[in-house]
Design the sequence.
């Protein structure tokens, strides 16, 4: 008689593809994911395979599974030590699979809609993105063709607009996608630095129309952090010179994408460098006006002061009938502290009109801390204008019309 083997489909994160963005840890409803300074890992005894973390992962690193003997599940210490995933152990019978088991996948939409706050599907009219064309094993290289400081020289924030050119290499991107940068060198433990993710700030047809280039919005991290590797990539990028060669992976992202149908409205809410995807979308629409796109653009943009707001000058020069721009400065001298939520409440009537319109797509990007406040503000505005927020929120998520990207 066969003795039953007590196996476990162990959920694992691929350290080679993971860009350490923390999205999975934030999303997990039962705190099964954790990390050290090197790897993101899954607690075998806690993970219930609910799949809530899978759709939001920008790279797919999260969607890895190994069948193991329960008694020999990979410990957290083992996972922390990995540079790559172990192969499926052939000695473990049946069910050897690289991705989630079918039964877990069938559960996914229920779990995801309960725990994920934004859409896990793109707008219906979004163009089909290419993702992960270049990986850690097969990265792309790009040449720096521009590196400009965006913020006032006297401002404490040092934010750069960096343009990378791929030359003849195919690197197709869409607005809302991101790329990973592999900074040179190694961390204290001798391992190569892991990739850092940056949203693309340019439209699909290039920072310069018709050129094979992308731009990034990068803030130099100078503060002292407990994590000694903080700031490694932002300082590397901000110090780049024209002609330098950068190692790139990606593109990433298949849901935070803009709608392509001309009547679609964009309600964009961002802080600081979270403006990168908003710039990409706005610029894409600007290049196609008038005629091709008739929907409205409404922007709420928060920064400490006007001097610290990236793209302040160009933004202010955009025609008022093209984009409805609302700025919120939290530390403007002599002014009360103002966040994007405050600006949204001041424009509640117009935000409500957009919320009522099935062509409206909402994008939130920037500080993690803003997410609660922005969602609460949308809920309050909806309620004050006779809309049932809980149902509307579900609808927005289901229809790929509410996209959140906060770190
Ligand atoms: P920041 O300068 O630190 O903050 C921008 C503004 O947001 C400040 O006015 C700040 O006010 C305000 N703020 C703070 N807490 C808030 C809250 N709870 N609700 C609303 N507003 C709030 O921004 P940053 O350093 O540029 O950081 C932007 C974030 O975007 C980062 O976390 C970054 O990881 C993320 N991001 C960047 C990219 C990219 O491509 N670079 C893409 C996606 C996301 P006070 O400081 O005065 O309180």
Sequence:
């Amino acid at each position: 008689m066969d003795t039953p083997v007590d196996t476990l489909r162990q959920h694992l994160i691929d350290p080679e593809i993971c860009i350490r963005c923390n999205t999975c840890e934030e999303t997990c409803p039962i705190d099964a994911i954790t990390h050290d300074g090197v790897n993101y890992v899954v607690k075998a005894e806690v993970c219930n395979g609910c799949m809530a973390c899978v759709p939001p992962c920008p790279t797919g690193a999260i969607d890895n599974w190994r069948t193991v003997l329960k008694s020999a599940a990979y410990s957290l210490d083992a996972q922390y030590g990995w540079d790559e995933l172990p192969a499926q152990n052939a000695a473990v019978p049946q069910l050897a699979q690289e991705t989630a088991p079918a039964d877990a996948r069938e559960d996914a939409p229920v779990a995801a809609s309960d725990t994920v706050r934004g859409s896990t599907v793109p707008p219906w009219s979004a163009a089909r993105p290419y993702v992960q064309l270049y990986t850690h094993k097969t990265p792309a290289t790009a040449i720096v063709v521009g590196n400009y400081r965006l913020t006032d020289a006297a401002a404490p924030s040092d934010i750069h607009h960096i343009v990378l050119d791929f030359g003849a290499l195919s690197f197709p991107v869409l607005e809302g996608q991101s790329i990973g940068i592999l900074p040179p060198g190694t961390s204290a433990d001798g391992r190569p630095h892991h990739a850092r993710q940056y949203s693309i700030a340019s439209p699909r047809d290039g920072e310069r129309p018709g050129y094979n280039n992308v731009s990034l919005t990068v803030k130099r991290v100078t503060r002292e952090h407990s994590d000694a590797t903080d700031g490694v990539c932002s300082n590397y990028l901000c110090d780049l010179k024209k002609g330098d060669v950068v190692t790139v992976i990606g593109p990433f992202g298949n849901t935070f994408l803009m709608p392509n149908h001309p009547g679609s409205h964009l309600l964009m809410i961002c802080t600081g460098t979270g403006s990168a995807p908003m710039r990409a979308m706005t610029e894409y629409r600007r290049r196609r006006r008038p005629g091709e796109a008739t929907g409205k653009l409404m922007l709420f943009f928060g920064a400490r002061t006007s001097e610290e707001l990236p793209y302040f000058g160009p933004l202010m020069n955009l025609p008022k009938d093209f984009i409805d721009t609302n700025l919120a400065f939290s530390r403007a001298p002599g002014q009360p502290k103002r966040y994007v939520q405050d600006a949204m409440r001041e424009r509640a009537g117009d935000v409500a009109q957009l919320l009522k319109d099935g062509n409206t797509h909402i994008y939130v990007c920037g500080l993690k801390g803003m997410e609660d406040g922005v969602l609460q503000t949308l809920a309050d505005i909806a309620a004050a204008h006779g809309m049932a927020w809980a149902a509307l929120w579900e609808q927005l998520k289901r229809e790929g019309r509410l996209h959140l990207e906060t770190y």
Summary: The pocket of NAP is lined by residues 157, 198-199, 217-219, 271-274, 276, 302-304, 330-331, 339-340, 365-367, 369-370, 373, 405, 407 (CB under 6 Å). The radius of gyration is 22 Å. The CA atoms of residues 118 and 221 lie 28 Å apart. Residues 370-384 form the longest helix (15 residues).
